[in-house]
Specification:
The protein is mainly beta. Helix content is 6%, strand content 38%. The longest helix is centred in the N-terminal third of the chain and has 8 residues. The relative contact order is 0.18. It binds zinc ion. Zinc ion binds next to loops.
Length: 126
C-alpha cells in the first residue's frame, strides 16, 4: 500500500494555519451576503461571491452532536460544534469527561495536534 503524500501548503488558507499556531481559529465571512463559513475557502458557499474575508472566531460555541469512540486511545470524542458565529465544524472534544457532555453544552476552543500531528481546532467544556 502506498503512502499518501502530505498535502502541499495552499497559500489561500495559509493565514488559517498561522492563526492556529497562535491558538486562534480563523473562519471566513462573505463581503457580499455577510454569511460566515467554515472551512475557509475563496468563494462564498451561500451566494457564490468570490469576495470573502478572514474573521477571527471568538472560539466559543455549543456541541451540536457528539460520539464517544470507545476504542480510540487519543481523541475519543468526535463532535460537531456550532460556533457562536454560525458555522458548524467536525472536531474533537478534549479534556472533558464524556459523561459530562451533552448536546447544546457550551465549549471553547483549544488548539491541539490532530491524529496526523498537524494543529487542529478542538474544543473543551466551559
Ligand atoms: Zn455570500
Amino acid at each position: 500500500m502506498s503512502q499518501t503524500p502530505a498535502p502541499s501548503a495552499n497559500p489561500e488558507i495559509q493565514p488559517y494555519f498561522e492563526a492556529l499556531r497562535d491558538g486562534k481559529l480563523l473562519i471566513k465571512a462573505c463581503t457580499q451576503c455577510r454569511q460566515p463559513h467554515f472551512y475557509p475557502r475563496a468563494g462564498c458557499p451561500f451566494c457564490f461571491s468570490d469576495t470573502t474575508e478572514w474573521l477571527e472566531s471568538r472560539g466559543t460555541g455549543t456541541i451540536y452532536a457528539y460520539s464517544v469512540l470507545q476504542a480510540a486511545k487519543d481523541l475519543p470524542v468526535l463532535a460537531y460544534v456550532t460556533l457562536d458565529e454560525g458555522p458548524t465544524l467536525m472536531t474533537s472534544i478534549v479534556d472533558s469527561p464524556p459523561s459530562a457532555l451533552s448536546n447544546g453544552a457550551a465549549v471553547r476552543l483549544v488548539v491541539r495536534p490532530g491524529a496526523d500531528g498537524a494543529l487542529a481546532p478542538m474544543f473543551t467544556l466551559i
